[in-house]
TrEMBL record:
Species this protein is from: Isoptericola peretonis
GO molecular function: chorismate mutase activity
Pfam families hit by this protein: CM_2
Protein name (database record): Chorismate mutase
Upper taxonomic lineage: Bacteria, Bacillati, Actinomycetota, Actinomycetes, Micrococcales
Major enzyme class: isomerase
Amino acid sequence: MPDTPDEPTPVPAPPARPADGMPQEILELRASIDNIDAALVHLLAERFKMTRRVGELKAVGGLPPADPSRDRQQVDRLKGLAEGAGLDPEFTEQFRNFIVSEVIRHHERIAAEHAAGRLKGELPALDTYA
Ligand SMILES: O=C(O)C(=O)C[C@]1(C(=O)O)C=C[C@@H](O)C=C1
């Protein structure tokens, strides 16, 4: 047993911490995360505006809410994009399915309203299904 105490293990300097104790870098990352979340909300709102109109056109045209061939096309494309972007393709598929299941729920409600005659007069005339 040596009679000198062990050398203290060097401890890395802690990250800079503002008053609330949270490392500064986490606060900066959170600011960017908040910006990204806001963009996602706005993008989703735009997507739902588009799908609402698709739902109206489908209801008027007597088309079913879901389109399995379009679903497959979207999933294949998005999984390919996910791989290229370093995102888990399975997660990407589930995320897409989560959104589209809500779209289909909206489409079904729009179709029911159309069937009940409540959409009459709200929709512009359609050439396609006239
Ligand atoms: O493209 C359509 O036919 C839609 O109704 C839109 C949408 C989508 O949200 O992207 C929703 C349901 C379909 O199964 C496929 C795609």
